[in-house]
Amino acid sequence: MGSGHSHGHAGATHRWRLRVAFALIAIFFVVELVAGLTSGSLALLSDAGHMAADVVALGAALVATRIAARDDTTGRRTYGSFRAEVFASGLAVLLMLGVAAYIAVEAIRRIGEAPVVATGPMLVVGALGLAVNIVALALLRGGAAESLNVKGAYLEVVADTLGSVGVIAAGLLVAATGDAWWDTGIALAIAAFVAVRAVMLGREVLSVLGQHAPAGMRPDDVAAALGAVNGVRDVHDLHVWTLTSGMNVATAHLMTREGADPHEVLDAARHVMRTDFGVEHATLQVEPESHTGCHDVTW
Predict the structure, then answer these.
(1) From CA 250, how far away is CA 243, in angstroms rounded?
(2) Which of 23, 112, 156, 180 has its CA 20 to 30 A from that of 205?
């Protein structure tokens, strides 16, 4: 016995934001890569590398929202393909860590060298990159709070925005001092920021894939609320987890008291899950007090 469940997901709602951001970032990536190679700026190249990661991450996020919305034709995906969005977020994490590692290695390689850095292209491209990233941030911000998939793309662009600021700062400092170390130092700072953001997002992704209880939802509180439903004697085998952003799922066994109406118990329990915890898809098994079948479960 269980509830009906929602077929919508947050990522699909914001697909248009991902499309526009993807187009802007992809176009500018080519510009920044060419400028980085011609100017010799590690900060500019590091930002271009991170922007390349953005292009891949945004593209993966777009593909994931399409896969998540696709009907299952195999009959085997009983929860659909909504987890595709979470895997796309995981890819964004790996890309961000890869870019951070590349920047760090390249900066270490430059120690003891005196690279020639052209500050003019750095400043122009850095300013253009900042403008592009601000537009992309404004687009993705609206969906970042609702979708882990969009949040991954949003954090990528946040890091890119800082990268553009770093490129501008490096260009100004190198021009003012003539010391190319500023370019390398700021590139390392960008790498550290990218790595920290990647780890934070990675923890969220692993929490979903590990089927942990959703953030802000304590299983003990859920059990207590269900146990307070009129006619419920005991709550056991309770599980709560996140399928994808905006789609929390729960299962539980509700043991009823002698004479309790199972239909009333089920309706009341579904209401509690929906209104108190925002869980629209709760599979609830109502069983009489005399039922002992659950004791046969071995794990």
Answers:
(1) 10
(2) 23
Which residues constitute the domain of residue 43?
10-209
Instruction: State how far Cα 43 lies from the chain centre.
Output: 26
Let me know whether 125 and 244 are in one domain. no
Matching residue, tokens 């539980």: 252
Of 188, 85, 68, 168, the C-alpha closest to 121 is 168
DSSP H or E segment with residue 64: helix 42-69
Please tell me the chain's helix, strand, coil percentages from 3-state DSSP, rounded to the nearest 5: 65, 10, 25
CATH number at residue 189: 1.20.1510.10
Q: How many other C-beta atoms are found inside a 10 Å radius of the C-beta of residue 255?
A: 21
82-92 average pLDDT score: 81
Angle at 44 between CA 91 and CA 21, to 5 degrees: 45
Give dist(CA 133, CA 166) in Å, integer. Answer: 13
User: For residue 289, what are its two tokens?
Assistant: 């007090």
> Do 289 and 232 share a structural domain?
yes
Q: Could you report the per-residue pLDDT of 282-296, keeping only the tens digit for each?
A: 999 999 887 766 666
**AA identity, residue 202:** G
Neighbours of 295 (CB within 10 A): 6
Structure tokens at 186: 């700021």
